């Protein structure tokens, strides 16, 4: 694979998370990266390395989203048993709602995926911050 193709596929691998997230939230971001990575990982070490970075970041974000959803369900379930829920629900969700945390996670996904895609397009490797290295 020539260097130009490596850069293109490296860019696509990083953008796969955004594309997949738009189609199927929570797991689509992982599937999007996997599709591009699995197609070309054996043809280029650059694409393989960037694919591993991208998939680890997407898995980390999906795990964080599941945790936020679980906490949300536990908290709202507990509050629904109390009279406090009826009075505080609107204020809680409008000021610091769990939905906002999910929005922050997806915004981080878009920002860091675009940064990584730009770096890959220049032929530079990118390591995502706060990413759990599950795929090595």
TrEMBL record:
Alphabetically ordered keywords of this record: Membrane, Transmembrane, Transmembrane helix
Superkingdom of this protein's organism: Bacteria
Subcellular location: Membrane
Main subcellular location: membrane
Transmembrane annotation, as ranges: 12-39, 59-81, 101-118
InterPro entries per the UniProt record, alphabetical: MamF_MmsF
Name of the molecule in the record: DUF4870 domain-containing protein
Source species taxonomy: Bacteria, Pseudomonadati, Bacteroidota, Chitinophagia, Chitinophagales
């Amino acid at each position: 694979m020539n260097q130009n193709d490596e850069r293109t596929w490296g860019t696509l691998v990083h953008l796969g998370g955004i594309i997949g997230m738009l189609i199927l939230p929570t797991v689509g971001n992982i599937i999007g990266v996997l599709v591009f990575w699995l197609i070309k990982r054996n043809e280029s070490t650059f694409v393989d390395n960037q694919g591993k970075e991208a998939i680890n970041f997407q898995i980390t974000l999906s795990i964080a989203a599941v945790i936020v959803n679980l906490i949300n369900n536990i908290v709202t379930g507990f509050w629904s048993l109390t009279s406090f829920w009826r009075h505080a629900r609107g204020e809680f969700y409008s000021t610091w709602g769990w939905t906002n945390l999910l929005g922050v996670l997806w915004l981080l996904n878009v920002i860091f995926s675009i940064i990584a895609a730009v770096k890959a397009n220049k032929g530079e490797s990118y390591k995502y911050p706060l990413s759990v290295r599950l795929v090595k």
